[in-house]
Design brief:
disordered N terminus, alpha/beta, single chain
């Protein structure tokens, strides 16, 4: 019984973490003084925060494709010459530990065998300590920078549980994360009017 409850608690926790990996936690912020109505074109910082010294990583290429799709869906066009906005990426992986509290002890009651009071007194159920679950949490930060002002005007940060940290996130994972982050970007190209969140 003890081991069954421990396994059940661990399975529930893993399920919660897996659900989180499918739905990233996203937060964002923007500079209310920025003139978003004047932004119509974009390009990428050089080098990007996800590049390694002297070369572009696979992750960087996937992030650029995913971000370009999101920007174009909001009416922006890519322009390497004098863009209105520059995009930068930062990524970070952190090891996390979660403690799963044990369930409360159960009261068990014994039955007599036809003598005495007919019932034995109650005794507490088996007590056992918390389970510890370790996992890796990945964070992706997307910055939009106004190069003329040399000022970041919007940032979106997505956090999700990762599986194999030794493997570069797939195109699908990157696309899903970027879609979730840009869902929090409230502007369309050439418009300073915020778009209601869906």
């Amino acid at each position: 019984m003890k081991s069954l409850l421990r396994i059940l608690c661990a399975v529930v926790m893993v399920g919660v973490l897996a659900a989180c990996s499918n739905a990233p936690i996203v937060r964002s912020d923007y500079d209310p003084r920025a003139d978003f109505a004047s932004y119509r074109t974009f390009a990428f910082m050089e080098p990007l925060g996800t590049d390694r010294a002297g070369y572009t990583t696979l992750l960087t290429e996937r992030l650029k494709r995913a971000a370009a799709l999101q920007m174009e869906s909001k009416g922006y066009t890519y322009s390497a010459i004098n863009p209105d906005l520059l995009i930068n990426f930062q990524s970070h992986v952190q090891s996390r530990t979660e403690y799963v509290a044990p369930p409360p002890p159960m009261m068990m009651w014994g039955y007599g065998f036809g003598y005495g009071s007919g019932f034995y007194g109650g005794w507490p159920g088996y007590a056992f300590g918390p389970d510890v679950i370790q996992y890796n949490e990945g964070t992706l930060k997307v910055d939009l920078i106004d190069p003329k002002r040399k000022q970041m005007v919007w940032e979106g940060i997505g956090t999700s549980v990762l599986g194999n940290v030794q493997q570069t996130p797939s195109d699908v994972m990157v696309q899903n994360m970027m879609t979730a982050i840009f869902a929090r970007y409230p502007f369309l190209a050439g418009s300073g009017v915020t778009v209601p969140k869906k």
